[in-house]
Structure formats: C-alpha cells, structure tokens
Amino acid sequence: MNEFKHLPLLQLHEHLANLDLGVSKFEPDNALKDACLCAAKVIWDQTGLSAWDARPRAVQHFYEYGNGTLGFAHVDADHKDCFVMIIFDRKSSTPSGYLLFDIGAEYAEPLYICPAINHEGPPTEEMIENSIPKLMSHQDPFAVVDIGYGTYMQVLQTGENSFRLEHQHVNTAHHYESVREVSAQEAISALKSYAFGKKEWAAEISWKKLDL
After folding, report:
1. Gap between the terminal Cα atoms of the chain
2. Residue 156 contacts residue 142 (beta carbons within 8 Å)
3. DSSP state of 9
4. Hey, which of 81, 108, 144, 162 would disulfide with 103, CB 3.0 to 4.6 Å?
5. Where are the alpha helices (DSSP H) in 111-183?
C-alpha cells in the first residue's frame, strides 16, 4: 500500500486530453480491481470527501483510453455520479494518478451570481460578456458560475483589465487558481466555456492548486 501514498492528483485537462483519444469499456481482472481499490483507500484522506468507512465504496466502470496505454476506474464518492477516478497503466495494471470528477455536475443547470448586475439566476453568453468588465462597479467585484455540489468557477476583478480566476471541483481539497491574472476577454471566455458545458477553460488557462 505504501507505493500509493504519493499518487499524484491530476488536473482535469490531463484527463480530457486522454478522453479525446476515445474510450472503451472493459472487464478487469481481480488484480486490477484490488489495486485500484487499494490505491483509492490510501489516498482517500487527501480527497476532502467523507471518511472511507462513512459509506459503501466500490470500484467499478473500468475504461481504457484510445491509445491503449492508460485506463481509469471509478470509485464511488459522496453523491450520485461523483467518483474518484484512479488512473492506471494499462500494461502493468499499476495505478499512476487520480482525480475527483463529478459527472452529474456536467449536466446541471448553471447559476450565475453577479452583484454588479444584481443577478442570481441562469446565465446567458451576452450577460457574461456585458457584466465582467463592470465588476468593480460594485463593492463585491466578483461573479460566479455555480453548478452545484461545491463545483464552481469564480472571477474577481482586481484592476482595470485584471481578473483572478478560481475554480473548485466538489470541495476545497480540489480548489485551483489561475497562475496569473487574466484579461477581461480571457475571463469572459473561461466563464462562458464553463457555464455552457465546454472544456476549453481547463486547458487554455494554467491552474495551480490552492491549499485552503
């Protein structure tokens, strides 16, 4: 079990890049099932989820990426369609990384919260485009796209054309900040991508994990 203590936490864009190769489901052998379940149990305290023994955990839904070198398995997290994904080397059946992924949030209706335009409700592209440059007109110069269960993206205006982006996936153990402040147009593009179910934001912005 000690070999899994330092299993790296992957960022979403790394998983998405592999997904672009295609995926196929397969039936693993017991050794791979056991390795993935063991790896999940070892890193579980790092996920910010409820304790391992707080509810039943099962490893399921094994897939391989299209290039055949890596695969991933789902381990039940704390709510429906939310999983810790264990990435493994397909040839050696050895876990090589993990990430937390809320599949249900992918289909949730986004909520846009923006004090500068006194709005809390569904977003439109035009609304995001028009409101972001005006954030500093309010004492709370931020806007949030919230898709529920602790998953959201937030932008804070810090200067005339300077914005800080943050995003969180499920809980504060998976909270990220843009490595640099971005322009209004970059912030708008990221929020629109996030709000309307696209994933450009994950790769076009460089993110660093924050310890909250």
Report:
1. 27
2. yes
3. B
4. 81
5. 125-131
Residues 88/71, Cβ–Cβ less than 8 Å: yes
Distance CA 110, CA 197 (A): 9
Q: Are 149 and 170 in contact (CB under 8 A)?
A: yes
Q: CA geometry: angle at 210 spanning 204 and 212, to 5°?
A: 145
H or E, element range at 194: helix 184-195
What's the whole-model pTM score? 0.90
CB atoms within 10 A of CB 154: 17
Contact 140, 115 (CB under 8 A): yes
Under 8 Å between Cβ of 187 and 177: no
Written as one string, the DSSP assignment of 35-49 is HHHHHHHHHGGGTTS
pLDDT band of 19, cuts 50, 70, 90: confident
Structure tokens given for 147: 């898709």
The single residue listed with the structure tokens 């309010």 is 138
Give pLDDT tens digits for 61-73. Answer: 999 999 889 999 9
Mean predicted confidence (pLDDT) in 28-47: 95
The total of other beta-carbon atoms located within 10 Å of residue 149's CB is 19
Q: Are 1 and 42 in contact (CB under 8 A)?
A: yes
pLDDT tens digit string along 112-160?
A: 999 999 999 999 999 999 999 999 999 999 999 999 889 999 999 999 9
**Residue 54 CB neighbour total at 10 angstroms:** 9
